[in-house]
User: Fold this.
Amino acid sequence: MCHLSRVAAMSLMVALAVSLPARALAQALTESEAVARAMAENARLRAARARPAQVAAEQRIRRLAPNPVVSFLQEDAAGTRDSFVLVQQELPTSGRLGLLKQAGTAARERGFALARHMLDWARSELAGAYLIPPFKRYEEIVEIFT
Assistant:
């Protein structure tokens, strides 16, 4: 764990060194200050941190039925005015919504299955393996072993 935080801090400091002007490099920073500054100033790190939430939101969207559409039409011809209110709701009758729900859940499970397969290979071919969870999400490492 301590080694992981040192490696993460060092990689963030390198990213910080590349993205900051030379005058900022002369300042002494603690590890937490370097991480906070890198997250605040590096757009790629912010985007990478937001990616898991984006994927989860996309999975939730796949499970929803389309929104209803309300239209108002008004026709005026030959002195006669007609007004119409049209409400449309698409009903998923093809089973597409169920397939999209399955795909969202299956994508995550497939990722874990692939990680388990690679770990099995590493056990037979290597002396050890080092698993690094994204953004300190250690529960996902536990889930690989279950």
Summary: The first strand starts at residue 69 and ends at 77. The beta strands are 69-77, 80-88. The radius of gyration is 26 Å. The helical segments are 2-19, 22-25, 31-41, 43-62, 96-125, 138-145.
